[in-house]
């Protein structure tokens, strides 16, 4: 009997990858906080989740259209479409949309979410190892 790592690990592997990419985007925003005319960006989790669900074609995530006026599946953002510009909370003198406090809070929340995904993934691996050892 073979082990399917995709089924055993669930979405935690993709969540870890997403959190890592988002950390890079948020760090780039913080690094360019004093750059005039810089536009802050962020990754949208729902767009990445829709992309991963489309790749896996899980029936639980499938979009059903019951009316001719529903949006098509092709209109969902994928890939780079998940990277969105952030709306500034207020006007700035140098026309930048980076709010350092918002970016730091988002980075801290992303770090907590990364650690949670890493902990879940670690527990999955520990469970697989104990199952292989027969414990």
Describe the protein's topology:
Blueprint: H1 5-9, H2 12-31, E1 41-43, H3 45-56, E2 83-85, H4 100-133
Antiparallel strand pairs: 1-2
Helix pairs in contact: 2-4
Overview of the molecule:
Keywords: Bacterial flagellum, Cell projection, Cilium, Flagellum. Residues 11-38 form the Flagellar basal body rod protein N-terminal domain. It is a single chain. It contains 4 helices and 2 strands. With 135 residues, it is mainly alpha-helical. The protein has one domain (10-133). The protein has a two-stranded antiparallel sheet with strand order 1-2. 10% of the residues are buried. The model is unreliable at 74-78 (pLDDT under 50).
Précis, in short:
The chain has 4 helices and 2 strands; from the N terminus they run H-H-E-H-E-H.
How much of the residues is beta strand, in percent? under 5%
Query: Radius of gyration, Cα only, in angstroms?
Result: 19 Å
Mean pLDDT: 79
Sum up the overall morphology in one term: flat
- Intertermini distance: 17 Å
Please state how the strands of the largest beta sheet are arranged side by side: 1-2
Order of helices and strands: HHEHEH
- The beta-strand count equals 2
- Unreliable residue runs: 74-78
User: Structural class of the helix and strand makeup?
Assistant: mainly alpha
Compute the number of structural domains: 1
What is the helical fraction, as a range of percent? 40-55%
Keywords: Bacterial flagellum, Cell projection, Cilium, Flagellum
Subunit structure: The basal body constitutes a major portion of the flagellar organelle and consists of a number of rings mounted on a central rod.
Protein name: Flagellar basal body rod protein FlgB
Main location: other
